[in-house]
Structure prediction request, 205 residues.
Amino acid sequence: MDSKSSQYPSPCSYLTRLSTVQASEVTNIDVIKKLVLGEFGLGILRPSNINLPYLSQLAKSYELDFINLKSLNYVVLMSINHPLAHNDIISVDDLANYTEIVHVDYERNMISIKDFTNSPWKSKNIIKVCDRGSLLDLVSSVKGAFMWTTGTHEQALKDYKLVEIPCNFDSEYMSMDRIIYKRSKIFSSFEEEFIDILINQQGKN
Prediction:
């Protein structure tokens, strides 16, 4: 974090100081739905670039617009006791015999099925989870489990005894974070300040 961004509070700490803000963690599809219905004033999408074209087309069809945040590389999250936990870098093929934890978001998995066609196995073990709160529990407790993520809070890594390891897949696999809102929206001073904090914390493409 540079000196400029360190002048800003974290987005979460900023929200907790306000009694009129309701924050909710939902799927990318639900963010779009709730914005269209007027239940959300602002949303944040975090799709992989595999899913981005579909979500962008869907959002634009409902007259939603975007502010692009900085793209982030995916890493592999796993227990410190995982057999691959001491690797400096992991390949997709290294994960062939291990169980992937996937959050069900009505989207394709982070790695496209085409990336497995030349791999030495015919199927993958996958546990699909609807509740994000269960993800870290399963990654830490299921033997050989892993999941794709763009970053986990340091305290959560310590609490659940997890590590993040880079993967050597192509750089095309990134999260394409976007602030999303109605095209006709007039931002309040609070919303403008919150967006400014997000941009200064994460950066902008």
